[in-house]
């Protein structure tokens, strides 16, 4: 499964910035055709794409792998690097200049990668307008609440949220992924609201029984 289908998926975000710790976690996860593996931004920054992709392919040779680059500039270059490394998709930040996002999209088409865009830090109005304007390139739209945002006391106003899932689907054929604070309860809510991909990180890699947590989430995804 190196392409996204019409099914629902569970995405494991490997945000641990340590090669050995990631490998130990990979050893504890069983293959499933509904699993997407994400090279998290901290992990990419610390270990590098070309170092990581062979490791992930060693344990999951046919699963979809996305590189969470959160690109803000030089869109074409970063897509090319992800392509050379062997990723199936890569992520551009919704905060990037429009020119960068367009170059990113064109490069994804050229190199045969799926284009993902992340809402983290954007306002609802501007992000929805952006998604509409680049819909010909997009494969996945991520509605994302960040870790710092989750832990902070201040509540953001006018940010993109799960209530926008169906609104985005009406203007765009892209899949919708949700990230931030995902557990069994919130995963079910996200799926019920129309999400196609549920992204989970700490809930799995901070657990003493990661495969158990994955199995519980897959039960929800595959209902």
Write the layout of secondary structure elements.
Layout: E1 9-14, H1 19-27, E2 35-39, H2 41-47, H3 49-59, E3 64-71, H4 75-85, E4 89-93, H5 98-111, E5 114-118, H6 124-133, E6 138-144, H7 147-151, H8 165-171, E7 175-179, H9 184-192, E8 197-200, H10 202-205, H11 210-221
Parallel strand pairs: 1-2, 1-8, 2-3, 3-4, 4-5, 5-6, 6-7, 7-8
Word description of this protein:
- The protein has helices at residues 19-27, 41-47, 49-59, 75-85, 98-111, 124-133, 147-151, 165-171, 184-192, 202-205, 210-221; strands at residues 9-14, 35-39, 64-71, 89-93, 114-118, 138-144, 175-179, 197-200.
- The chain has an eight-stranded parallel β-barrel, surrounded by seven helices.
- The mean pLDDT is 92.
- It has a single domain, classed as Alpha-Beta Barrel (TIM Barrel).
- It contains eleven helices and eight strands.
- It is of the alpha/beta class.
């Amino acid at each position: 499964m190196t392409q996204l289908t019409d099914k629902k998926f569970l995405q494991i975000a490997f945000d641990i910035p340590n090669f050995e710790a990631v490998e130990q976690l990979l050893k504890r996860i069983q293959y499933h055709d509904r699993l997407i593996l994400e090279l998290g931004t901290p992990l990419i920054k610390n270990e590098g794409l070309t170092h990581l992709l062979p490791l992930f392919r060693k344990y999951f040779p046919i699963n979809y792998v996305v590189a969470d680059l959160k690109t803000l500039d030089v869109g074409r270059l970063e897509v090319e690097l992800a392509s050379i490394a062997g990723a199936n998709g890569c992520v551009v930040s919704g905060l990037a200049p429009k020119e960068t996002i367009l170059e990113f999209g064109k490069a994804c088409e050229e190199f045969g990668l799926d284009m993902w865009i992340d809402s983290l830090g954007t306002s609802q109005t501007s992000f929805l307008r952006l998604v509409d304007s680049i819909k010909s390139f997009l494969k996945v739209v991520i509605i994302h609440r960040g870790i710092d945002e989750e832990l902070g006391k201040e509540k953001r106003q006018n940010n993109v949220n799960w209530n926008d899932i169906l609104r985005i689907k009406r203007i765009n054929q892209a899949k919708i992924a949700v990230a931030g604070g995902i557990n069994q309860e919130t995963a079910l809510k996200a799926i019920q609201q129309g999400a196609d991909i549920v992204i989970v990180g700490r809930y799995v890699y901070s657990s003493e029984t990661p495969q158990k947590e994955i199995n519980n989430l897959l039960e929800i995804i595959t209902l």
